[in-house]
Amino acid sequence: MAVLEVVIAPLGTGSTSISQYVADAHRVLQETPGIKYQLTPMGTIIEGELDVLFPLLQRLHEVPFVKGARRSMTIIRIDDRRDKDLTMEGKVKSVEEKLVTSK
């Protein structure tokens, strides 16, 4: 299982607002089985198997073009740990535990 962060920035839309593009991308996420995702103020975190995530990323990258953008910039960060299970919650819990024990 991998955890990734994706930021998709449509360009050439005539507006500085991108929230409608984010909403349209999240509709794609809602339709995708086998993943978990979390909207953040600066991007979206997605958890799933890589064979699901890579085709999903391509679909997400296409959303701005379908909605009329002339250019799209997509930034992806992937955390793919193979020595133990990796989840969004587990990553946060690990840091929170260290905050408590380091006092």
TrEMBL record:
GO terms for cellular component: cytosol. Transmembrane segments: none annotated. Pfam families: Thiamine_BP. Gene3D superfamilies: 3.30.70.930. Residues 5-96 form the Thiamine-binding protein domain. Belongs to the UPF0045 family. PANTHER family: UPF0045 PROTEIN ECM15 (PTHR33777:SF1). This is Thiamine-binding protein domain-containing protein. It comes from Moorella mulderi DSM 14980.
